[in-house]
Amino acid sequence: ATIALLNEGKNFNSTNDNNNSGDDRSDDKGIEPEAIEVAQINGRHYAFIGLERQGGIMIYDITDPKQAQFMHYVSRRDYNQPVCTEVEDGECMNDTYNPKAGDLGPESINYFTRNGGHFIVVGNEVSG
Question: Which superkingdom does the taxonomy of this entry point to (predicted)?
Fold first, then answer.
């Protein structure tokens, strides 16, 4: 949670379907880690952890699980964009989410290799 707080500031613990919801999740389940994928890359084991509500992916080196090391946090969510393209009574109308808002609500992560490269693909509950 500290890493997410340092990276997201006033947007820490936002919900996944409203960009004006900073700290909305603190009294619920917080950033709610949801999606997890483990991969072996160049002899090391990594955990990719999707934060469903706030968004973003945390990456940990878990080669030695007793001394897991945080490696990186990435979020492609744009808090300056509205989540919905059409709003009615504060809710997204007809599930019309704004692609400019970025990735919202990582629900699943899959790791794969191709042509010697290492990749993850993320399915987002809100933005697709």
Answer: Bacteria
pTM: predicted TM-score of the whole model, two decimal places? 0.74
Where do the domains of the chain lie?
A: 2-124
Task: Give the span between the Cα atoms of 104 and 53, in whole angstroms.
Answer: 8
d(CA 57, CA 36): 9
Q: Which residue numbers in the chain have pLDDT < 70?
A: 1-31, 87-95, 128
* Residues β-bridged to residue 88: 91
User: If you ran DSSP here, which 8-state letter would residue 77 be given?
Assistant: B
The runs of H, that is alpha helices, within 2-128 are: 2-8
Q: What are phi and psi of 99, to 5 degrees?
A: -60, -25
Phi first, then psi: what are they for 72, rounded to 5°? -165, 150
